[in-house]
Amino acid sequence: MEMRSVIKPNRVASRLLHRAAEEAAMREHFVWVTTRRIKPGALEEFERAWRPDPYPPGLRQAYAYWSEDGLEITGVSFWNTRASCDAWRTSEAETRRRQAMAPYVVEEREGFYQGRELGIPVR
């Protein structure tokens, strides 16, 4: 019977893989954040008006967060590039969407951000 030794991963290769994974996690993000206060009782109607049609090219992910009282909504969208976000923000479709939301909105704040994901060490 032939005995085979167990091959342990090369430490250098292991470090390179770890570094590549960290760099992938640190890719740059382009983020548009909008927070709106809406009229009481308008959450359901606002949510219908809020959904874009068509969905914008270059949009990677989008999240919506509501306050417990349903009067404040924060939308966070991740884009491929700043240019794709800017193109959507100035598009006719986005203008129509904002007009549809307007009857329900009391106040609006927005900002465009660039950033990176923070790597959390494995425990």
Short description:
This protein has 123 residues and is an alpha+beta fold. The protein contains four helices and four strands. Helix 2 (43-50) runs antiparallel to helix 4.
Strand order of the largest sheet: 2-3-1-4
Question: What percentage of residues falls in helices of 4 or more residues?
Answer: 25-40%
Fraction of residues in β-strands: 25-35%
The shape is globular
Number of helices, counting only DSSP H or I runs of 4 residues or more: 4
- Provide the gyration radius in Å: 22 Å
- CATH architecture group name: 2-Layer Sandwich
Q: How many structurally independent domains?
A: 1
- How is the main sheet built? 4 strands, antiparallel
Q: State the end-to-end distance.
A: 40 Å
Relevant terms:
123 residues; alpha+beta; Alpha-Beta Plaits; four-stranded antiparallel sheet; 4 helices; 4 strands; 32% strand; ABM domain-containing protein; Dimeric_a/b-barrel
Report on the architecture of this protein.
This is ABM domain-containing protein. With 123 residues, the chain is an alpha+beta fold. The protein has one domain: Alpha-Beta Plaits. Helices cover 33% and strands 32% of the residues. It has helices spanning 11-25, 43-50, 82-89, 92-101, and strands spanning 28-38, 59-66, 72-79, 105-116. The protein has a four-stranded antiparallel β-sheet with strand order 2-3-1-4. Strand 2 and strand 3 (72-79) form a beta hairpin. Helix 2 (43-50) runs antiparallel to helix 4 (92-101). It is globular, with a radius of gyration of 22 Å. The chain starts with 10 loop residues before the first helix and ends in a 7-residue tail after the last strand. The model has no long low-confidence stretch (mean pLDDT 85).
